[in-house]
Structure formats: C-alpha cells, structure tokens
Amino acid sequence: MAMLHTGTEPLAIAVFARAPLAGAAKTRLIPALGAVRAARLQRRLTLHALRVAQRAVIGRVTLWGAPDVSQRFFRAVQRRCGVNLRSQAGSDLGERMAAAFAAQAGPLLLIGSDCPALLPAHLVAAGNALLDEEPGGRDAVFIPADDGGYVLVGLRRPQPGLFAGIDWGSERVMAQTRQRLAALGLHWVELPGLWDVDRPADLQRLSALEGFVEWSP
Questions:
Q1: Other CB atoms within 10 A of residue 91 CB
Q2: Which segments of the chain have a pLDDT < 70?
Q3: pLDDT digits (tens, 9 = 90+) for 125-183
Q4: Could you give the CA distance from residue 102 to residue 108 in angstroms, rounded to a whole number?
Q5: Selection from 54, 68, 51 nearest residue 13 by Cα
Q6: Backbone angles phi, psi at 63, to 5 degrees
Q7: pTM of the model
Q8: DSSP characters for the chain?
C-alpha cells in the first residue's frame, strides 16, 4: 500500500498516549480494575494504536507522549516500534492537539489510544477521505465516538481555532466541534462511528475483542 500525499506533502499519523503509570492512567477505570490493571490496560491500548497506525502503511507515525517522552515506557516503545517520539505540550487536550498539527507541515491524522476497535482500514479510509480531490476539497475528517467525542481527527493543514472552546472529556465534544467547523467555514467529512474505552461499562465490549479477553470487568 502506497504512502498517501497531497501535492508534495506526505500524510502523517500522530498517536496520542499517556504513560501507563499506576494511579495516573485510565483513572476512570480504576474503580473497576484497580490502579495497576488500569495502567496495564493503558499500555496494551497504546501498543494496539501504534500497531494499527504502522500497519495502515499510509504515512510516518509519531507517538506523542504525556506527560513527556522521558518516561521509560515511551523510550522502550521507540526502540521496539521504531516510531518518532514527541512530548505533548499544552494546558488541555485542545492545546496539545493544536500543537501536534502545527508541528506537521502537511496533512495529519491524529488518533488516541482509547479505541481498540480501530483498524488499519479505518486509517486508510480516513486518509483517502481527507485527501479526496472533490470540488472545493476537504479540510477535515473525523471518526466520531459513540460517547459524544471522536476517536480520529484529520486535517489537511493546521486549524488552531478548531480546538478552542471545547468541553474536553464531555459528551458534547463532537457536537461542539461541528459548531466550530461551521463557524470557521471548514469542509469536513465524518466516517462511521466507533466506540472507545473510557468508563467501566466499556469493559464488557472490550473483553469480547480478540486479544483483550483478560479485561473482563
């Protein structure tokens, strides 16, 4: 599968992930899993996201780590997977995503590490949708999440204002993002939605996936 380009700029993929530190990772799942197992799940989901990004074979993959990439886990992943490493920077998720897009000269797909249902084919479809040369072009692509957020955002070029004024972590994220897209006059496409793992109720679906059976609640 060929790398995707728009003009002379190749598509790239950013994977956002937190270090799998007990007590600081997957905190909403700690009541169901405990701090240590929640951190182990964060590690497993991050490796899944990276594997999906690399198997899509559509662009260079960068792992954006939080709180920073000095964490031992990130260094080990870099050696194991051969990905680029960057530290997330910003006071909230919107600022951190805006910074990642600003660091990329060309089109970029950004995913988190919370969606075990994400497959390489989803990234290929998102890349093709973003770079589709339809009349007027597309500025953005999204895969919404069924909890009101989204599991993927792709932009042809940085759009700093897109991530401002969003109630991150709420069920209003995608709805508010649509309002921002319209206000900025951007053209976007939404692909079929997926589910992610944020709350204890999500563990039932997670444990039904191949490779995740040990995470039954």
A1: 7
A2: 1-8, 134-136, 215-217
A3: 999 999 987 666 799 999 999 999 999 999 999 998 999 999 999 999 999 999 999 99
A4: 10
A5: 54
A6: -95, 120
A7: 0.94
A8: -PPPEETTEEPEEEEEEE---TTTSSGGGHHHH-HHHHHHHHHHHHHHHHHHHHHH-SSEEEEEEES-TTSHHHHHHHHHH--EEEE--SSSHHHHHHHHHHT-SS-EEEE-S--TT--HHHHHHHHHHHH---TT--SEEEEEBTTSSEEEEEESS--GGGGTT--TTSTTHHHHHHHHHHHTT--EEEPPPB----SGGGHHHHHTSTT-GGG--
Which CATH number does 10-205 carry?
A: 3.90.550.10
Domain range summary for the chain, segments of one domain joined by +? 10-205
CA dihedral sign of residues 24, 73, 112, 88? positive
What tokens does 15 get? 């994977």
- Whether the ω angle into residue 116 lies within 30 degrees of 0, i.e. cis, is no
Cβ(159)–Cβ(101) below 8 Å: yes
